[in-house]
Amino acid sequence: MAAGLGFKTFLTGDVLSAGDTNGYLMQGVLVFADAAARTAAVTSPQEGQTSYLKDTDVIQVYSGSAWVTKSGGASPLTTKGDLYGYSTTDARVGVGTNGQVLTADSTAGTGVAWATPASGGMTLLSTTTLTSSNTSINVTPTGYNQLYILVQDYVFATDGGFQFRINSDSTALIYMGASVYARQGAGGGTSFTEGAQLSLDYYGPDNVNDSNVIAMTIDDPTSTNFKTGFWTNGMITTARERYVQGGNFAYFGTSAISSLQFIASTSWTSGTVKIYGVK
């Protein structure tokens, strides 16, 4: 078969030669039942020659050495959310599940796969209502880098304060903390504590108040080394004075954290403790 001659506009009365037929008219899209039929009919394909195969519904162009698919073909997609992929041919990448992300994966046939991303942020581990004078909360911080503890709307039966312990540990001098505080109309100060528990209230609210809050963080809760943390406290007293207090602390026990204790000097009448794990 002759090589393609390009494009020509034929006029009325022109003589159609064999060269014109082979060089122009035969350069259209050739239609065959399948690749085998094409091979039998076109024994010397020319670069740029185009064919359509009925069995696969594809258009292929001869590159000079092989027939290359350019368009068409039955879609491998079957489901809403499917993506086109490629292995050695076009292939379906099935839709993932809610929350998954598309990830490069050399072990997958198409080189990509849907996967659940590594989790991060904060996860609520526990919500507990403060009751009696000592509320103990079991906690499993495995897989978290930090604990975030929020004590909300806590109130005592009478003026008082509360202490905090880890793993019910009341060993002498195992807690150490330094804090600063400010009181409405009366300045502020600093304090230092050490003992069998950590004192978190400078001057406790009574049962007429319901807006008191403490936020705490504890680093590396699963470590078998010392633990450090930070806390901030905001409260209103019987006399409607406002206090803010905060500081850092250390727990010199070497066990991973498994429980937390909130110990009121009198008793709790309300309050909620929320414990979050932080990645």
Word description of this protein:
With 279 residues, the chain is mainly β. The protein has 3 domains: 1-74, YefM-like fold; 75-117, no CATH class; 122-278, Jelly Rolls. The chain has helices spanning 18-23, 35-41; strands at residues 29-32, 50-53, 58-62, 67-72, 83-86, 90-93, 101-104, 112-115, 122-129, 134-138, 146-156, 162-166, 175-183, 188-195, 198-199, 213-219, 227-236, 242-251, 259-264, 268-278. The strands form 5 sheets. It has an 8-stranded antiparallel β-sheet, with no helix packed on it. It has a 4-stranded mixed β-sheet with strand order 1-2-3-4. The chain has a 4-stranded antiparallel β-sheet with strand order 10-19-12-15, with no helix packed on it. A hairpin with a 4-residue loop joins strand 13 (175-183) and strand 14. The longest helix is centred in the N-terminal third of the chain and has 7 residues, at 35-41. 20% of the residues are buried.
Compact description:
This protein is mainly β. Helices cover 5% and strands 46% of the residues.
Helix content: under 10%
What do the pLDDT scores average to? 86
Strand order of the largest sheet: 9-20-11-16-17-18-13-14
Number of domains: 3
Identify the CATH class of the largest domain. Answer: Mainly Beta
Head-to-tail CA distance between termini: 69 Å
Order of helices and strands: HEHEEEEEEEEEEEEEEEEEEE
Question: Structural class of the secondary elements?
Answer: mainly beta
Quantity of strands, as a count: 20
CATH fold-level topology of the largest domain: Jelly Rolls
Radius of gyration: 38 Å
The CATH level-2 architecture of the largest domain is identified as: Sandwich
Q: For the report, how would you describe the main beta sheet?
A: 8 strands, antiparallel
Principal-axis shape equals rod-shaped
Q: How much of the sequence is in beta strands?
A: over 45%
Work out the helix count.
Answer: 2
Flag low-confidence runs. Answer: none
